[in-house]
Amino acid sequence: MAVLAPLIALVYSVPRLSRWLARPYYLLSALLSVAFLLVRKLPPLCNSLPTQREDGNPCDFDWTPCGCLKPWIPDIREVEILMFLSAIVMMKNRRSMFLMTCKPPLYMGPEYIKYFSDKTIDEELERDKRVTWIVEFFANWSNDCQSFAPIYADLSLKYNCTGLNFGKVDVGRYTDVSTRYKVSTSPLTKQLPTLILFQGGKEVMRRPQIDKKGRAVSWTFSEENVIREFNLNELYQRAKKLSKAGDNTPEEQPAASTPTEVPDGESKKDK
């Protein structure tokens, strides 16, 4: 049973993993991973490459320095350089499946998200206390933020309404916002991206959570996790009821209202 459960989980995740790997930048990553080996080992291509090997074979790696008496002892040449670069890539991105990775492109698809600056975020959160905000704190240089961008955009298209809004703020650009809302931009803390739920202009919850050392608790930014943790279905239904109640309020007023009461009704509807 201990072996069967992981196999079932792997088979269940194959369709999602295949769609994830079929993206252009991951296909390009796989191509770059094998391009160097093909150029160095394929005779039609490697014959024209310069080499410092004693035997003059350009289609083999330089394992030893010239004049070395022990050819089985590796030198700091191509193989060790590749090992060093691979270690750096793996340390930078532990979830990487390839030796070389391409940075995911910026998401340019449809979305229903309001982008804040350091001067507008507080004003928008305090404008109407009845509106619930879900704000993503992100940075353009973060691979995790770019991977989460299409997921967050889909959520905004599905759940955005009058009483439930989605926003984003670039804490890599507005560093004072990160300090104000206690979102660290250090890659070591793994706090990017951070989702914060605001109700009545106040923070209610955030994901990922932060431990005592200031590091983010491991949390997967998937659509299912966001919907479940933030109760988006319940928030959406509640926001729809509030918006309907707000729309019905001006219609229930008496028809013989005085002219001074009309601007008040219109201002509430505009809000």
TrEMBL record:
It is a single-pass type I membrane protein. Residues 243-271 are annotated as: Disordered. It holds the Pfam family Thioredoxin. It comes from the Eukaryota. GO terms for cellular component: mitochondrial membrane. Transmembrane segments: none annotated. Gene3D superfamilies: Glutaredoxin. GO terms for molecular function: disulfide oxidoreductase activity. One of its GO terms (biological process) is brain development. The keyword Cell wall biogenesis/degradation does not apply. CDD domains: TMX2. Residues 91-244 form the Thioredoxin domain. The keyword Membrane applies. It is found in: Mitochondrion membrane. Keywords: Membrane, Signal, Transmembrane, Transmembrane helix. Monomer. Homodimer; disulfide-linked. Occurs in both reduced and oxidized monomeric form. Oxidative conditions increase homodimerization. Interacts with CANX. Interacts with ATP2A2. Endoplasmic reticulum and mitochondria-associated protein that probably functions as a regulator of cellular redox state and thereby regulates protein post-translational modification, protein folding and mitochondrial activity. Indirectly regulates neuronal proliferation, migration, and organization in the developing brain. This is Thioredoxin-related transmembrane protein 2. It comes from Neomonachus schauinslandi.
